[in-house]
């Protein structure tokens, strides 16, 4: 598979799906759901220019420190000594992929809606904590080193999860009073289908093809554990 990918006989998308499968990740287990990277950082421009390296996320860094400002807080957390010596050191107390995160993204689609409601003791979570906007989700990642969710494969092929086709009452945001309905898209996307098309195009772009291995090292490769993980600010609780 690696050789096929290097020879460009399979796409970046296919290679990531294969890697996830070999790593034991599966659509049948929310706790081991396939994980995909955030690949862009421009969610505000009117047009998305895939020839400009500036629009892409730095794939060599864990999502928690893509914003340099967060690195200091992350290092401080790692240097905190557990007085009882029970807890190993870590940079992040949460994970880049977990069941709640999958339900967070897929809240508008069954059976994830029902699973989310069960998780929240029989009701929808408060609207401000829900997945309501792609630009706002990215901004929250940049502002908060404790939020380290990567993406799920659906962001590259499944426009329906961005629409509230079932008409669920997801509440309204506290400050703007905006009703949470379809997911708010980046300015450069004119519809959920357009977002998926451009996002998938970005995944297969030259920039991502040249740097994807750096992210793979963090998630599936040698920077998961040990000294390389410490150096990369990539140690999870």
From TrEMBL:
Gene3D superfamilies: BEACH domain (1.10.1540.10). GO terms for biological process: intracellular protein localization. The keyword Repeat applies. InterPro entries: BEACH_dom, BEACH_dom_sf, BEACH_Domain. It comes from the Eukaryota. SUPFAM superfamilies: BEACH domain (SSF81837). One of its GO terms (molecular function) is protein kinase binding. Keywords: Repeat, WD repeat. The keyword Repeat applies. Residues 1-237 form the BEACH domain. Pfam families: Beach (PF02138). GO terms for cellular component: cytosol; membrane. It comes from Cochlearius cochlearius (Boat-billed heron). This is NBEL1 protein.
